[in-house]
């Protein structure tokens, strides 16, 4: 999740660690710019980051943001130093699988092509969350 989106949702950017989650695949959602991850074969993996030290209130905010198509699951991603950690991830519900495009979703593509519009959509009156840019 982009830092600006986190700042808008939970009013801060928590510490993060790069991580890899095995046994999942990240796909595009039809007609949307956001991704979905789903359980997959053990050879598949999703690269991302773990958000550290989130409060219960912040998790509640993220639960609402992620919407009914997702459920929160506890998983064990591998951090960049090779250790594993317990973390929660938002997994796309099976009942909505027909909404997936079986094409990989790229954060880099999203950032280059959709980031600014997504942040503006979440920002009241189109103002940047930091008041500058």
Question: What attributes does this structure have?
Answer:
Hypothetical upf0131 protein ytfp; Putative gamma-glutamylcyclotransferase; transferase; transferase activity; 133 residues; GGCT-like_sf; GGCT-like
Question: What does this molecule look like?
Answer:
- Keywords: Transferase.
- Residues 4-110 form the Gamma-glutamylcyclotransferase AIG2-like domain.
- The protein has 133 residues and is α+β, with helices and mostly antiparallel strands.
- The protein is built from 4 helices and 8 strands.
- It has helices spanning 3-10, 56-66, 107-113, 115-122; strands at residues 16-22, 24-29, 35-39, 45-51, 70-75, 78-79, 87-92, 100-104.
- The strands form 3 sheets. The chain has a 3-stranded antiparallel sheet with strand order 4-1-6, with no helix packed on it. A 3-stranded antiparallel sheet has the order 3-2-8, with no helix packed on it.
- The radius of gyration is 15 Å and the shape is globular.
- Mean pLDDT is 90; it is low at 126-133.
Q: What's the rounded overall pLDDT mean?
A: 90
Question: What is the count of structural domains?
Answer: 1
Q: CATH class, anyone?
A: Alpha Beta
Overall body shape: globular
Rg estimate, integer Å? 15 Å
Along the chain, the helix and strand elements come as HEEEEHEEEEHH
Sheet having the most strands: 3 strands, antiparallel
Tell me the CATH superfamily. Gamma-glutamyl cyclotransferase-like
N→C terminal distance: 19 Å
User: Helicity level, as a percent range?
Assistant: 25-40%
Q: Strands across the major sheet, in which order?
A: 4-1-6
CATH topology: Hypothetical upf0131 protein ytfp
Q: Report the uncertain regions.
A: 126-133
Strand content: 25-35%
Count of alpha and pi helical runs: 4
User: How many β-strands, per DSSP?
Assistant: 8
Structural class: alpha+beta
- For the record, the CATH architecture stands as Roll
Family: Belongs to the gamma-glutamylcyclotransferase family.
Function: Putative gamma-glutamylcyclotransferase.
Keywords: Transferase
Protein name: Putative gamma-glutamylcyclotransferase
